[in-house]
Amino acid sequence: MLNKLYPDTYLDSVDDIDFEMYYKKGIRGIVSDIDNTLVPHGAPADEHIIKVFEKIHGMGIDTCLISNNKKLRVEPFAKAVNSKFIYDAHKPSRESYKKAMELMNTDKESTLFIGDQIFTDIWGANRTGIETVMLKQIDKKEEIQIILKRIPEKLILWLWKRKVRK
Ligand SMILES: [Mg+2]
One short Pfam family name for this protein (predicted)? Predict the structure, then answer.
């Protein structure tokens, strides 16, 4: 059970992801969360994140944003970074992860997931069988229902780090 909650990799920010390495490993599609993973919650796509997506696409890796947020939030962000997208994704349900792979024409082996929350993002990706990168949440100020999930999340991350160190 715990294994399904562990990320494969944990990094500080999207800038720490070695996309070349993932490309060489065969990754051709990236599924990513938006809020607090790529930008602070609710923030528009800035110059920096637009460049990150240009670089990823330039390498021959497709992208699909999946968010539990509304169309009004997800669509403009996705358009700004030129990405496929799914809103109201109901993560951790597997459906949106599978649909994202369909949209990108990739499979479990050639897809990577990026997100900032264990109980929605990472759990859903693990259930789908996709490799995961968990990023440290950008904004420490979060809604109460997310803060409550961060407490068990910290425990799981602590257990995971202890396991990885062994
Ligand atoms: Mg998030």
Answer: Hydrolase_like
